[in-house]
Amino acid sequence: MAYKTVNPYTNELVKAYPDATNEEIETAIATGDRLYNQWWDEPVASRAATLHKIADLLRANEDELARIATVDMGKLYAESQGEVELCAIIADYYAEHGAEMLKPTPISSRNTGDAEILHQATGVLMMVEPWNFPYYQIMRVFAPNFMVGNPMILKHASNTPGSAAAFEKVVTDAGAPAGSLTNLFASYDQVANIIADPRVQGVALTGSKRGGQSVAEVAGKNLKKNSMELGGSDAFVVLSDADVDKAVDLAWRVRIYNAGQVCTSDKRFIVADNLYDEFLKKLKASFEKLVPGDPMDPKTTIAPMNSKRAKDKLQGQIDKAVAGGAKVYYGNQPVDLPGQFIQPTILTDIDKDNPEFYDEMFGPVAQVFKVSSDEEAVKLANDSELGLGGIVVSEDAQHGRAVAEKIETGMVFVNSFLVSLPELPFGGVKGSGYGREMSQLGLTAFTNEKLVVTAQEPDWNNPAGGLAVFK
Ligand code: NAP
């Protein structure tokens, strides 16, 4: 049984789940395909009430859902509660606006008749999701595609099966028809078979570069549309005119949230030289105050990492960085608790030859760099194989905006933490993947953008039509 909940705070095996059978997979695809065809005869707006109901059930069961997520992957209970609320916000948003956003888009054309783009469903989708936001990652794909009319099959991370099952139950309890979202404890091979099935029309993956490359390869081979939301090594740029206290107040929070296991959590802090020493001193003071402990305890402020594997990987990266010349400014000491803890750590002096320079450190480790100009800051921020998000801090917001424009990522926030909301597009460039989730862009990620031109009769004089030759 590959799918297991092992509580990352107690290290206890909570529950193991049976692997999906091939029969279950066939049933899931067939049920989804039937639903896809059924939904063609139902207006988009008819699904809004169910999606609102899903939001209501999420809110009504917030505490229990939050507990399940925290036991699955260790995040602070209050963070899990916030995640459940965010899922409800996303569901409500698409329920309220989805039908309007999916109305045909007219095109002004010199052609005779009316040209318009219809935004139509394409078929069953496969979604492959990670453990770090075990509900929100599903909702980002589920809510828009439920409105569109694309039934979905979910393969969640092997360490968050409790959250996967709980999410599926909310959808079922809200009265969504069978096949709307089917959770399967599927193997990689089974996922590849699902993607290859002609009834399946697309795959959305959020995860690592390694996972993304494997799934995109299968999707490419089978010519299936796909979106890839991959890792990030986002820069947090502190410009020379920033207020250090405000910058640090933002910096420690974005780095520590979810024990640093956030794709858009800033991992590289690029600080103007006039502020560098003070920034480091104050960042250290903030990290020192963090209290590791039981993520269910409201007094705990730094959660364990999601698994032993994740902790070992990050510790290995820190060791490699240090062996390669990085200095430990703070942290990197063992935490005397049973869970999978990494002490919040600050690394400096990471130069380009360091073996970790281009790696994403997915946990509570801040790499801090010193630069002497805006240009140098932008150059360093862009010297990355990844391009997901970023933050720029300046007392002059327009100065920050000018620098933000030059950063090669999918999202940049000036003087604010990077929020994920249904109306804002989410996604990256370069090794961080392609495609966008949420917003109008996410809603149409897996639609058929179908051109329909409606005329009363042909315009034989239309110079663009070769048919005019036969007059
Ligand atoms: P991962 O190993 O790629 O796992 C993500 C999901 O992909 C899991 O469900 C995993 O299943 C599955 N998977 C991996 N290889 C697969 C394959 N060959 N076939 C089918 N499924 C496969 O990612 P992770 O390391 O756990 O997650 C952290 C990464 O996700 C970080 O790099 C982070 O930055 C990124 N992330 C990106 C975003 C974004 O929106 N851009 C958001 C959150 C996280 P198993 O669990 O069974 O291996």
From TrEMBL:
Alphabetized UniProt keyword annotations: NADP, Oxidoreductase
Family matches, as Gene3D superfamilies: Aldehyde Dehydrogenase, Chain A, domain 1, Aldehyde Dehydrogenase, Chain A, domain 2
Alphabetized CDD domains for the sequence: ALDH_SSADH1_GabD1
GO-annotated molecular function: aldehyde dehydrogenase [NAD(P)+] activity; succinate-semialdehyde dehydrogenase (NAD+) activity
InterPro entries membership: Ald_DH/histidinol_DH, Ald_DH_C, Ald_DH_N, Aldehyde_DH_dom, ALDH_GabD1-like, GABD/Sad-like
Domain of life, source organism: Bacteria
Domain Aldehyde dehydrogenase: 3-452
Any Pfam family the entry gives: Aldedh
Similarity comment: family membership: Belongs to the aldehyde dehydrogenase family.
Name of the protein: NAD-dependent succinate-semialdehyde dehydrogenase
Source organism per UniProt: Lactiplantibacillus garii
